[in-house]
Amino acid sequence: MTLVEIIEEHNDATLEELTELVEEKTEIKVSRAMMGRISNRLNYSFKKKHSMRPRKPAIA
Q1: Which of 2, 3, 17, 27 can bridge 13 by disulfide, Cβ–Cβ 3.0-4.6 Å?
Q2: Ramachandran quadrant class, 29 (left: phi over 0; alpha: psi -120 to 50; beta: rest)
Q3: What are the pLDDT tens digits along the chain (60 aa)?
Q4: Contact, 24 vs 4, CB < 8 A?
Q5: What is the H or E stretch that residue 38 is in?
Q6: Closest CA to 29 of 42, 40, 16, 41
Q7: Do the Cβ atoms of 33 and 25 come closer than 8 Å?
Q8: Could you give the 3-state DSSP secondary structure of residue 2?
Q9: How far apart are CA 55 and CA 15, in angstroms?
């Protein structure tokens, strides 16, 4: 499995998650910074995952 295939298969993964996936599938350990540089060179961008906080009720 290639790095591009891993990224495309898990396109919603964070850089940290991708580093773990790469190590799991290829047995090659890659740092988060290296994964960021690789993804930039491949023109992939990642959106930050935002946690969903409960909204406060509107005050009338």
Answers
A1: 17
A2: beta
A3: 888 898 889 888 889 999 999 999 999 999 999 999 998 898 887 665 555 566 666 676
A4: no
A5: helix 32-41
A6: 16
A7: no
A8: coil
A9: 28
